[in-house]
Design a protein that fits this description.
The chain is α+β, with helices and mostly antiparallel strands and 254 residues long. The protein contains eight helices and eight strands; from the N terminus they run E-E-H-E-E-E-E-E-E-H-H-H-H-H-H-H.
């Protein structure tokens, strides 16, 4: 299959590719999101690779510590050019610096490649009528998943992780070296690493929580929306790092 837009070819895809269009994903989720009282689209974008819809639910919020308010949200993303799965992921939005953190271990995904999905299906075998029915069923599942994604129990679990990370102090005096090693471990560029260090120092929160927030804050400085969203996800990965890995980073010397 060839994906085109305005007469320009965007992607050349395998005949095993499962068609999940951005339009049908948006058409399925936007009516559900509009039913969430007070919900707002915080950010949305269609890049060359993916579509993103980031929604915040201000009615579900709490404080990590007094004055540091976070709100529950959801990220819906899809690639119709073969650059990844369609995904629905919880999002935590921090009001103090408008950072978003993507909860990347709680995603519901549907893959576009037939042989790569859970059922091992090969979509070359199905008629257009069967594919249409399957697509409709998928969109119904997407609606149900969106409803469940803004979940108070899951949200409170992530907030508790943030509180625990707030208690994990940075004890090394070699903070620039620590950030450099973190950048190496998690694949940040030198420019991104510099931004993370800058936001960590200016934020003044020398804890694991502060480091994770420095990453999500630095994500706002990145020009690429795709990369910015990736960094929001890595921020959660850092927040969720093992105690052993944290102690290793924290023990760095000059």
């Amino acid at each position: 299959m060839v994906r085109t837009l305005d007469g320009t070819a965007r992607a050349f895809l395998s005949d095993k590719y499962r068609i999940i269009d951005n339009y049908e994903v948006a058409d399925a989720v936007l009516p559900i999101l509009s039913q969430i009282d007070g919900a707002r689209i915080e950010s949305c974008e269609i890049t060359d690779q993916r579509m993103y819809i980031k929604v915040v639910n201000p009615r579900l919020q709490t404080e990590v510590v007094p004055g540091d308010i976070v709100q529950s949200g959801i990220l819906i993303s899809n690639s119709e050019v073969g650059m990844g799965s369609m995904a629905i992921q919880p999002l935590v939005y921090r009001l103090v610096c408008t950072n978003g953190m993507v909860v990347n271990d709680a995603a519901t995904r549907k893959y576009h490649i037939g042989r790569g999905n859970q059922a091992g299906e090969d979509y070359r075998l199905y008629s257009n009528e069967t594919l249409a029915a399957d697509s409709k069923a998928l969109m119904l599942k997407v609606r149900d998943t969106v409803k469940a994604a803004v979940d108070q129990v899951r949200f409170e679990k992530v907030v508790q992780m943030m509180r625990d990370a707030k208690d994990a102090k940075i004890t090394t005096k070699e903070i620039p070296k620590m950030v450099e090693l973190t950048a190496q471990d998690y694949g940040f560029t030198k420019q991104e690493s510099s931004g993370i260090l800058d936001h960590l120092i200016h934020g003044g929160d020398f804890t694991l929580y502060g480091l994770a927030n420095a990453v999500t804050r630095a994500a706002q400085d990145v020009e690429s929306y795709d990369r910015s969203t990736d960094m929001e996800s890595v921020g959660y990965t850092i927040l969720n790092m093992s105690r052993e890995r944290w102690n290793k980073l924290n023990a760095v010397e000059a």
